[in-house]
Design brief:
The chain is an alpha/beta fold and 1088 residues long. The protein is built from 37 helices and 34 strands. A hairpin with a 4-residue loop joins β20 and β21. The two termini are 51 Å apart. The protein has a nine-stranded mixed beta sheet with strand order 1-2-8-7-6-3-4-5-9.
């Protein structure tokens, strides 16, 4: 449409008459063009290239400060943001996405910068004074002016749609009007006080697009875009204040890079959320990482409490004392150390602290080591639990307490495990944390939905019940929650993401060696099968007197000993607890049999003695000679992964008191007598298996001889022998220590977590001295115990050292018994399978009963009596001992894997792993990069780098596209943890290698191939430039971009359909992603 007003002015509406077309008609050879506008886009140059190439000159004024460096730090933020947007618009405005996604930016930028060098001069208004926007074209005496315009982009030219309600432009060609604007432009152009020549800056800025970029630079540009809000949110209160000097401490200088990143990330989370779980995998040094956090708090004069299991307290105690064996003595740590069990005590002393006078509420930082021990929060009748006291006295009372929890296994088999631990960070009040989380739902609802997904997952067939399948079923809020409150890295992540040269490699794991041993070679001793049959027939009525209470008296004892749970909605019956204890004792007998004949005999003897004593009590009562009560111990809150309770005379809870006159004594005595006779028979058989007839012991001695004669690493004779039971450890020490000393001249030690430690070396028998002499390099013996001569080469230990110890001098670990929890096997091996090991290879050896896996599993099930055991902790969830036939194949698969490979914790599918789901390392990477190299906010979008494949590390040919969704109306509650950013990895056929839902995996890939490569890779980018004619032929790659966007749409549609059938509503039928124009390309990485 063209309107004439007195033959002076025309109005161009950019609908049926476009400004771009009009300019093409007006611009001639040798035209002089002058423009004052807010922004300039290379795509406008591309649209008018034929015309602009023939002009004499172009003078362009940015009418607000652009590329002005001097004042940038002084500018108010509201000016700074628009300024940055004006600069980035050179590569295309937010409405030129379609053009940018054609990936022609590189070739257009190169041609545009060449043109600017020849034809154009750019200046910027240095002031905030207003300058109108207009275009002047001078063709000799013929002059034309267009105004008003916003900028020079394809939107302003009318070739692309923008967000203008109306885009009308006035065109003047009469002398008086045009002369006014031309003289205004010339006057302003010549005013050096108001104008600054920025042509060089514009050329330099544009040239960054077509210059080859290093992979590392593009990697950090990607991180900057994704985590920019994180950088904006953090301040001196949320990141460690380096003025404290914590980066000059001994502990900081001993940390590896990945540990330093964790320290910074933990402090950030503690300051923001007051809680964090550090769940790095076994062997990654969580203790040292925590010490780095502690030192930061101590330097700020904060009180710190370490709460740990007694069995792993030695390290914590050593690092705070002024001892010669404290390698961190320079830091003068001053934290308190108490034990988990101290929460059940009100009197006495622990590590010099008077518990009666202790002010629990005055700690600024609480470190809970092995925090999974606090995963249960259920009431117990007439008693405050440790969890409840911790919450009441330490967390909720007194000063605000930040809580750092350490555990390689924070989740066992239900997400409530994690929720209960995290609740310590927000004082058990969800409203304290909900307002801080960037989630749609509250924390309780997030965990409820997660548990629903887990329950659904646990019912899947064995071949589909994978960690990957579970992660696919969880939603965005859950991952956001984990990212906010946890740091959990696997050894694979550390190996791939960090510089291994700094730390040293993990040793290579050899395939496990399995030994299948009979009890004995004697033919007159019964075998496993008959022993199992005997165990399965035991009544173990000793542990279930409630079954024999007369019906008329049952109500009295139920009122006394049953526990109300779930806010009064249910009760945990004492009779159910007793049935659980019966099963547990039967399992205990089986475990001890699998451990050693000696441990089995000791346990049988203990139970026999208790049965005989109980029968004697009944007889005395019936003969009116004794007291009328029977006492026994109740089972409460057992940690079934710990076997210590089984070694302490079965003192496992509160005493239960029952009047014998209220019992059916005849029936009870009959059942007790049956068990007595069965146990006597089993004991008689086992007494035949003396050490010289113990085939398993004989096999162990041969293994030791072979290892000493033929070390797997030159000169390394060290061996760790693990057993679940101190009785077995005592037995092995007595049978092995003197023999190997006499035959090989090497020393043996036994560590069982009590005063019963022993060694043949003439040293103190304390925990730390023995372990230092066993692993002198990793424990730095030459620094802390230089006066001690000699070493320990064979270490026999219980699980008191299966966590928290660095014993990597050793290269050979024997499991004399297979722990029923595969996590414990991995934790044991983690003592020697550690980063920085001096050993090239390490060996795991496992002892098994001599039978097939099918027989083994079936026998286990028989002993467990094919019954579902009620949950001991009364959580209302499925119990971990539930022995359903549908799980047999699952258990068989786990045991089979143990025989063939060393499993990482995250590879054990029996539970829930939260490893490698957080993004903390990437944020810390970005913070460190920005500190060293400055801000990346001005870097244009659309840039790329080219790298080579590395298929050994899972990096295959293709392209990783980093996109930003610009459709603000789209439903944001998808499973994409980085919304509105999307990362998609496609191969050259357009097939998705990694979907946008797996953001951590794609970021890992980028980190693997980009970090450390701070120069462009010539052998990668040269073939790419040849293929694309230096960016002029990008059709193939723009097609792949389209495939990537289609994959986002398809995955979201699938998620919507799935959500129709899940709890908590649906995301379907809401706003959807439309297509190419809804995504802005941030960067892309070409993998050749």
């Amino acid at each position: 449409m063209l309107q004439k007003v007195g033959d002076v002015m025309e109005i161009i509406n950019n609908i049926d008459r476009l400004l771009g077309d009009d300019l093409k008609n007006v611009i001639e050879k040798d035209s002089k063009v002058s423009i004052a506008a807010s922004y300039f886009s290379i795509y406008a140059y591309e649209a008018l290239r034929e015309e602009l190439d023939q002009i004499k000159e172009l003078k362009f004024i940015f009418n607000s400060p652009t590329f002005i460096k001097d004042k940038i730090e002084k500018e108010k933020r509201e000016f700074y943001i628009p300024k940055r947007n004006r600069e980035k618009s050179i590569y295309g405005t937010e409405f030129e996405i379609k053009l940018k996604n054609e990936l022609m930016q590189k070739s257009i930028a190169r041609e545009c910068s060449d043109w600017i060098r020849k034809k154009a001069i750019f200046k910027s208004n240095k002031t905030h004074g207003h300058l109108p926007s207009f275009i002047n074209i001078e063709n000799g005496k013929q002059q034309t002016t267009y105004m008003p315009i916003q900028g020079l982009s394809t939107i302003d030219l009318g070739y692309e749609r923008g967000d203008y309600i109306a885009n009308f432009i006035n065109k003047f060609d009469d002398y008086n009007s045009t002369r006014t604007y031309i003289e205004l432009f010339q006057q302003v152009w010549a005013d050096d006080e108001k104008m600054e020549n920025i042509t060089a800056e514009v050329i330099e800025y544009i040239s960054t697009v077509y210059k080859e970029n290093s992979p590392e630079f593009i990697y950090f540009v990607i991180l900057y875009n994704i985590f920019n809000e994180f950088l904006e949110d953090i301040n001196d209160d949320l990141l460690p204040n380096e003025a404290t000097g914590f980066k000059e401490t001994e502990i900081w200088n001993r940390l590896y890079s990945f540990q330093k990143d964790a320290v910074i990330g933990i402090i950030n989370k503690l300051q923001k959320y007051h809680g964090c779980i550090l769940a790095d995998s076994v062997g990654l040094g969580k203790t040292f990482t925590a010490l780095g956090v502690i030192k930061y708090y101590e330097l700020r004069n904060k009180n710190v409490l370490v709460l740990c299991p007694k069995k792993i307290s030695e390290n914590w105690l050593t690092y705070r004392e002024n001892y010669t064996n404290n390698i961190l003595y320079k830091d003068r740590f001053n934290y308190d150390v108490l034990y988990h069990t101290d929460l059940s005590r009100y009197f006495g002393y622990t590590n010099g602290i008077d518990l009666e006078r202790l002010n629990w509420s005055n700690y600024d930082l609480l470190i809970i080591d092995e925090s999974h021990n606090f995963r249960n929060n259920e009431p117990v009748k007439d008693r405050e639990t440790r969890y409840q006291r911790l919450m009441r006295e330490v967390i909720r009372t007194g000063v605000k307490t930040d809580v750092l929890m350490l555990s390689a296994t924070p989740v066992n088999n239900k997400f409530n495990d994690l929720r209960n631990q995290l609740a310590l960070a927000y004082e058990g009040n969800p409203s304290n944390i909900n307002k801080k989380l960037n989630t749609e739902r509250g924390i309780n609802d997030i965990f409820r939905r997660a548990q629903y997904s887990f329950n659904k997952w646990s019912r899947l067939p064995n071949n589909r019940r994978t960690t990957e399948a579970l992660l696919n079923m969880l939603d965005y809020d859950f991952f956001e929650l984990l990212d906010s409150l946890t740091i959990a890295r696997s050894r694979k992540h550390i190996q791939n993401y960090y510089d291994i040269e700094e730390m040293g490699n993990f040793p290579k794991r050899l395939r496990p060696i399995s030994h299948f041993c009979n009890l004995t070679e004697r033919s007159d001793v019964i075998g496993y099968d008959l022993i199992y049959k005997g165990l399965s027939k035991l009544n173990l009525s000793l542990y279930a007197p409630f079954d024999y209470i007369l019906p008329s008296r049952m109500g009295f004892y139920e009122d006394r000993y049953d526990t109300v749970v779930m806010g009064g909605l249910g009760s945990l019956k004492q009779s159910d607890r007793e049935r659980s204890l019966q099963i547990l004792m039967r399992i205990n007998l089986l475990k001890r049999l699998e451990s050693s004949v000696e441990a089995f005999k000791i346990t049988l003897a203990k139970i026999l003695e208790k049965i005989e004593t109980t029968i004697e009590e009944i007889d005395k009562f019936d003969n009116h000679v004794s007291n009328q009560f029977t006492f026994y111990q109740e089972v409460k809150n057992l940690n079934l992964d710990e076997d210590d309770w089984l070694d302490e005379e079965f003192s496992i809870g509160e005493r239960i008191k029952i009047n014998l006159s209220d019992m059916d004594r005849i029936s009870w005595k009959e059942e007790l007598s049956y068990d007595r006779d069965t146990i006597r028979y089993l004991l008689k058989e086992m007494e035949k298996v003396a050490p010289e007839h113990d085939y398993k012991l004989h096999t162990l001695k041969n293994i030791i001889k072979e290892k000493i004669d033929n070390p797997i690493n030159e000169g390394n004779k060290k061996i760790i022998i693990f057993t679940a039971f101190s009785d077995t450890a005592n037995y092995l020490y007595e049978e092995i220590s003197q023999q190997v000393l006499k035959e090989f001249g090497i020393h043996t030690a036994k560590v069982v977590g009590s005063d019963a430690n022993k060694t043949t070396l003439n040293i103190r028998n304390d925990f730390h001295t023995i372990l230092t002499c066993f692993s002198p390099i990793s424990k730095e013996k030459d620094l802390i115990m230089p006066h001690i001569k000699g070493e320990v080469d064979i270490l026999i230990a219980t699980d008191c050292i299966s966590e928290g110890q660095n014993l990597q001098d050793c290269d050979y670990l024997i499991n004399y018994d297979i722990h029923w929890n595969p996590v414990r096997i991995t934790q044991r091996f983690g003592r020697i399978d550690r980063i920085g090991s001096k050993n090239d290879i390490i060996q795991l050896v496992n002892f098994w009963p001599n039978m097939t896996l099918d027989e083994y599993i079936n026998l286990r099930e028989r002993v467990e009596d094919k019954m579902e055991i009620v949950n001991i902790t009364a959580t209302g969830d499925d119990n971990i001992l539930s022995n359903k036939s549908s799980d047999l194949e699952y258990r068989k698969e786990q045991l089979s894997r143990l025989q063939n490979e060393v499993l990482d914790l995250e590879d054990i599918n029996t539970g829930v792993s939260i490893t490698d789901l957080g993004l903390n390392d990437f944020r810390m990477d970005l913070v460190n990069y920005i500190e060293k190299n400055g801000d990346l906010g001005n870097v244009p979008n659309g840039m790329h780098t080219v790298i080579n494949r590395d298929e050994e590390k899972g990096v295959y040919p293709g392209v990783v596209f980093v996109l930003k969704n610009v459709n603000g109306d789209i439903d944001v509650n998808k499973q994409n943890a980085l919304y509105p950013f999307y990362l998609v990895y496609v191969d050259y056929d357009g097939e998705v290698v990694v979907t946008h839902l797996k953001v951590k995996r794609i970021l890992d890939v980028l980190g693997i191939v980009c970090k450390g490569k701070n120069k462009p890779i010539k052998e990668a980018y040269k073939p790419f430039n040849k293929e694309t004619k230096d960016g002029k032929r990008m059709g193939r790659y723009s097609g792949l971009l389209e495939d990537a966007i289609k994959s986002i749409i398809n995955v979201n549609e699938e998620s919507d359909i799935d959500s129709l059938f899940t709890a908590g509503g649906t995301t379907a039928l809401l706003e959807s992603i439309e297509g190419l124009d809804d995504f802005e390309l941030i960067s892309f990485v070409v993998i050749r």
